[in-house]
């Protein structure tokens, strides 16, 4: 990326970026505290991480306007490490996870996103939308919160959805936060506030080295967690990047995003923060509030720290109802409602992949498992569809002495069994010609199938000729076929 393009990404719309960044900063606070609790660490660990990751990704990330911070996806991976070894090992694992992500970016691992189908992405989006909504239910439990909370959430939603009809100069989520905070202060409503989520830090983070032994034993402890965090973090970040790309109709650098996430996580481990990644909820808040440039991400991280350290007393009195209203808006806006409407119209395989991804992400609360299952199912269905296009037609010469087989389609593991079944090994003819002009041999399973057919036909006393192999298929046959078939390669005609 040249400097001019990078500079433009900072100042797409400074006013909109600044205001949207403020909204995101306030929305990040309870999330960071909640994720710290999930990981079993002090709230400041998540808050410092959210500040550091957001600010650094603003400079080094590949997707302007995308929000990265401490997340539940990475927090749940760290729970066991914290319980068994403590915070210092979490910090060391965070640093190593960041380095792994940097290496992944340098290795251009971002191209793997090409293998994630649209159905998997839609399932991922729908699952996260549902999880975001479910995460708000504790704040709407009538046994734990006063009934006026529901009224405040309703007012907040009304502001969020109706204010844009009057003006879009100020993000409606920000007006919602200010208005509900003023109401609760003036009328002294006894409702849950941000301060009830956990104690806010009153000091800025400082540079420190994790207090762990620098030896192979430490590496064996943290390495599995670091790999898991790096993998889950990159997966969620790249999927979120693709969603924001689609939302803004732009294309950004996936490999740079891997590097940016890695740099951010590595640095975060040195200031006492936990690992994180991109957040679809906060990214959608940012984009819908007008944030498009790197400045919005920088403002979100910077003001998060200012809010909790300098203005902590004021932030602590913000009612949770205001933030719940924002997250409900995000949930509703994130969910792909058209995917439900089009279930009957879309191919069954696509719908199964989408619904399976949703189910397993929600059931396991593990993004990697749900997406992996979705990708696996996509591959299986694709292989099945391609195998259905594979056909073998045959004809016999007038004198009945020669049988010609015309093979059409892709010969690979899913079609190799049908290939073998297409031949009559006991037919009374002297010569068999297998024409592969309209076919392509892909893998060792198809080579084994060709071996089986040729050798069984020869065993029955027939002369076998394989013709029409393209150069790529001929190469793999020469490398992997049975010696008897390779030795007779002179009889194999290459097109």
Describe the structure.
Helix 9 runs parallel beside helix 11. The chain folds into two domains: 344 residues, no CATH class; 103 residues, 2-Layer Sandwich (Transcription Regulator spoIIAA), CATH 3.30.750.24. With 495 residues, it is an alpha/beta fold. The longest helix has 33 residues. The protein is 63% helix and 8% strand. It has a four-stranded mixed β-sheet with strand order 3-4-5-6. A two-stranded antiparallel sheet has the order 1-2. The two termini are 44 Å apart. Strand 5, helix 19 and strand 6 form a beta-alpha-beta unit.
Give the SSE map:
Elements: H1 3-10, H2 14-39, H3 43-60, E1 68-70, H4 72-85, H5 87-106, H6 118-134, H7 148-166, H8 172-186, H9 216-248, H10 254-269, E2 276-278, H11 280-288, H12 294-309, H13 312-315, H14 320-334, H15 337-341, H16 348-364, H17 367-388, E3 391-396, E4 402-411, H18 416-421, E5 431-441, H19 444-459, E6 463-467, H20 471-480, H21 483-487
Parallel strand pairs: 4-5, 5-6
Antiparallel strand pairs: 1-2, 3-4
Helix pairs in contact: 2-3, 2-4, 2-11, 2-12, 3-10, 3-12, 4-5, 4-9, 5-9, 5-10, 6-14, 6-16, 6-17, 7-8, 7-14, 8-14, 9-10, 9-11, 11-14, 16-17
What is the alpha-carbon Rg in Å? 29 Å
What's the N-to-C terminus distance?
Answer: 44 Å
Strand content: 5-15%
**What is the strand tally?**
6
Q: Helical percent range?
A: 55-70%
Order of helices and strands: HHHEHHHHHHHEHHHHHHHEEHEHEHH
SSE class:
alpha/beta
> How many domains comprise the coordinates?
2
Uncertain segments: 487-491
Largest sheet: 4 strands, mixed
Shape label: elongated
Overall pLDDT metric: 86
Helical region count?
Answer: 21
Strand order of the largest sheet: 3-4-5-6
């Amino acid at each position: 990326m040249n400097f001019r393009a990078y500079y433009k990404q900072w100042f797409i719309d400074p006013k909109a970026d600044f205001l949207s960044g403020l909204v995101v900063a306030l929305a990040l606070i309870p999330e960071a505290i909640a994720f710290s609790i999930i990981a079993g660490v002090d709230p400041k660990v998540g808050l410092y991480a959210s500040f550091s990751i957001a600010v650094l990704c603003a400079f080094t990330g590949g997707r302007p306007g995308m929000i990265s911070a401490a997340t539940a996806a990475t927090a749940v991976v760290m729970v066991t490490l914290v319980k068994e070894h403590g915070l210092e090992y979490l910090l060391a694992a965070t640093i190593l996870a960041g380095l792994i992500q940097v290496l992944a970016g340098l290795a251009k691992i971002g191209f793997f996103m090409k293998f994630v189908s649209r159905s998997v992405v839609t399932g991922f989006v729908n699952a996260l939308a549902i999880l975001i909504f479910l995460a708000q239910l504790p704040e709407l439990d009538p046994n734990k919160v006063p009934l006026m909370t529901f009224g405040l959430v309703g007012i907040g939603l009304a502001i969020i959805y109706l204010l844009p009809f009057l003006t879009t100069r100020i993000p409606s989520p920000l007006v919602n936060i200010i208005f509900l905070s003023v109401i609760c202060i003036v009328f002294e409503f006894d409702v849950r506030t941000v301060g009830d989520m956990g104690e806010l830090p009153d000091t800025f983070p400082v540079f420190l080295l994790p207090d762990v032994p620098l030896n192979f034993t430490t590496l064996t402890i943290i390495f599995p967690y670091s790999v898991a965090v790096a993998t889950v973090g990159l997966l969620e970040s790249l999927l979120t990047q693709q969603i924001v790309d689609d939302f803004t109709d732009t294309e950004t650098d996936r490999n740079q995003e891997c590097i940016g996430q890695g740099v951010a996580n590595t640095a975060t481990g040195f200031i006492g923060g936990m690992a994180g990644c991109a957040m679809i909820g906060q990214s959608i808040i940012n984009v819908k509030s007008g944030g498009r440039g790197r400045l919005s991400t920088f403002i979100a991280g910077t003001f998060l720290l200012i809010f909790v350290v300098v203005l902590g007393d004021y932030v602590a009195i913000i009612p949770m109802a205001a933030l719940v209203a924002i997250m409900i808006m995000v949930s509703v806006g994130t969910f792909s409602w058209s995917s439900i409407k089009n279930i009957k119209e879309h191919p069954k395989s696509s719908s199964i992949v989408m619904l399976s991804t949703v189910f397993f992400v929600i059931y396991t609360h593990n993004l990697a498992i749900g997406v992996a299952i979705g990708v696996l199912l996509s591959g299986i269905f694709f292989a099945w569809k391609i195998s259905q296009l594979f056909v073998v037609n045959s004809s016999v010469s007038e004198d009945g002495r020669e049988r010609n087989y015309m093979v059409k389609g892709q010969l690979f593991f899913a079609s190799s069994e049908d290939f073998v079944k297409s031949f009559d090994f006991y037919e009374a003819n002297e010569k068999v010609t297998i024409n592969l002009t309209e076919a392509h041999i892909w893998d060792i399973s198809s080579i084994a199938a060709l071996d089986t057919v040729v050798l069984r036909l020869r065993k029955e006393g027939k002369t076998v000729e394989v013709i029409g192999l393209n150069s790529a298929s001929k190469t793999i046959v020469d490398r992997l076929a049975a010696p008897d078939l390779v030795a007779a390669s002179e009889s194999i005609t290459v097109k």
